[in-house]
Amino acid sequence: MQTFIPYEIIEGDYDIGMVILADHAMNRLPTAYASLGLPQSAFERHIAYDIGIEALTRKLALLLDIPAVLSCFSRLLIDPNRGEDDPTLIMKISDGAIIPGNHPISQSEWDHRVDTYHRPYHRAVERTIAKTGARGHAPLILSLHSFTPFWKQFARPWHAAVLWDSDNRAVTPLLDLLRAPGDIVVGDNEPYDGALKNDTMYRHCMMTGVPHALLELRQDMLGDEAGIDAWAERLAPIFKTLNADPTLHEYRIFPSRTGSYPA
What is the C-alpha separation between 123 and 84, in angstroms, rounded? Predict the structure, then answer.
């Protein structure tokens, strides 16, 4: 039986000093979990993965010749962008969909998913960041996500958004570069707040002083190959410009808005 690998590392030129992360790239499940009791249609929704992000990450990694790390399992199994102590790490219900395979769940099954899927993904992220920073300069980390165009009948006006905690080193220039053409609406910590204790950016960047930003893109703009290509062509030169700034390759720890870091 083929082993389920919970992450994929796209190789690139580590000396360039930039890494893309895609926490919710895929909607797959290991065979043993079948469909978690959900209809197949659930796995085409945002509750299962970030629509369009896998293809966009692959295109950007190729265009920029940089490494990327993708999660290979659905967030319905366990959410890699949550801390191990987060009660929403394994969701019982998501946007109205009850997940039978997650409720009830035993402590041993909870621990198994953490050990088998969540931790290996984060170890892959750690290795990739360490390899990219091996020459002594901090790497620039860019995390890609996507969001739904509507939420509870509210039409979200943003085409893109940048989420962050308190380290604005990459955030301010990224917002400026995205807004410069004047053809898209770009949110600042919309539609979510980027300060989330023990999430991916907190764990791998805030706590370690690595420059970073989390970019959210609206899913209706990533719904086909043309949309994905358009975003890749827009973002590649922006990411190159960011990466060329030497101040975005310095280690500096900022206090988190979520509170003090663990000792």
Answer: 14
| pTM of the predicted structure, to 2 decimals | 0.97
Phi-psi region of 25 (alpha: psi -120 to 50; beta: other; left: phi over 0): alpha
Taking the C-alpha atoms of residue 126 and residue 88, their distance in angstroms, rounded to an integer, is 23
DSSP of 68-120: EEEE-S-TTT--TTS-TT-TTSS-SEETTEE-GGGSS--HHHHHHHIIIIIHH
CATH level 2 (architecture), domain 7-146+217-249:
3-Layer(aba) Sandwich (3.40)
Mean pLDDT estimate for the chain: 97
Render pLDDT for 132-155 as a digit per residue (tens, 0 to 9): 999 899 999 999 999 999 988 899
**Could you state, in order of their start, the residue ranges of all structural domains in the chain?**
7-146+217-249
Length of the chain (residues): 263
